[in-house]
Amino acid sequence: MFVLFLPHQTFNPPLSFLTPVPGYDAWPQSQGSCMRNRFALLLPICLLAVGSPVRAQSLQPFECTFVTSVETGAVITQQGSCDKRVSPASTFKVPLALIGYDSGILLDEFNPVWEWQTGMEAAPQERKKVDPTSWQKEGIRWYSREITSRLGQEKFAAYVKRLGFGNADVAGEAGKNNGLTDAWVGTSLAISPVEQIGFMRRLLANNLPFSRDAQNKTKAIIPVYDGAEAWSAHGTTGTGNLMGSDGKPDPNRPFGWFVGWAEREGQHIVFVRFRLGDKPSDKPMGQVVREEFLRDIPRFSVHR
Question: Contacts by 204-210 with C-beta closer than 8 Å and gap 24+?
């Protein structure tokens, strides 16, 4: 029997995890103590169980919507269970872009252009020339795999560990030697919604352990979507299925991510929306939660 096990890892958030992003007026004097007290109360709640051992098959359906203010670092919305780790699926394209730019494999928004080759696993619509921008927009897995194959397992693992993305485990399935191709696709790598927020906040602040150039180039290729009431969201989706007892993706356990940041009229937020379902989904679950968040973003971006 195959059971996906997400190992224990103590989560020690960096100082910038939910702190204000440099360049903004953090906690103005008129509300400083209130904001700090609210933040101090909410942070332990958010982080209390992150990193606890979880077996994917034991996960019950759950959702999470987590929104923080870029200007103040305050938690605006926290709904559902946000501390459980799940495969990042295609949201891993963002840290992988960072790694690609830092290593010199990726050059800019439109280079390198690689062409699909016979033998690469790909849907018919993905069998074409792809650049970094189209890779991020369309979630083309063979392009991700081309980056990791050029890195090699040792360098790939070192980069993910340096980044501290989730549990940083890119070994893949035990005995299958598939870390370079499948670590982020329902196997070993796992991250919680809270950790996704922390990663995005650090990326926005250019506070990750990578060059400023690599971080800026990564932000430049993340797709932009129109939200309700003139909100503009920069985000990435991820879709997958938890593994069943037969070691295959279970269509009755679909999950979806939408992670990123958004802005409107001087207000800036960092967000994550996640759902794990208990029945098949007609649409990719990542698309479902993205559409929901874009529709409801005015409600999620207001303190309650």
Answer: 204/21, 204/70, 204/261, 204/270, 205/16, 205/21, 205/22, 207/14, 207/16, 208/98, 208/163, 209/162, 209/163, 210/98, 210/99, 210/101, 210/102, 210/163
Which residues are bridge partners to 258 per DSSP? 237, 273
Task: Tell me the angle at which helices 153-163 and 141-151 cross, rounded to the nearest 10 degrees.
Answer: 100
SS3 assignment, position 12: coil
Catalytic residue among 69, 87, 90, 301: 90
pTM of the entire predicted model:
0.84
Quote the CA–CA distance of 272 and 237 in Å, as a whole number: 10
Give residue-wise pLDDT tens across range 84-120: 999 999 999 999 999 999 999 999 999 999 999 999 9
Is 144 among the catalytic positions?
no
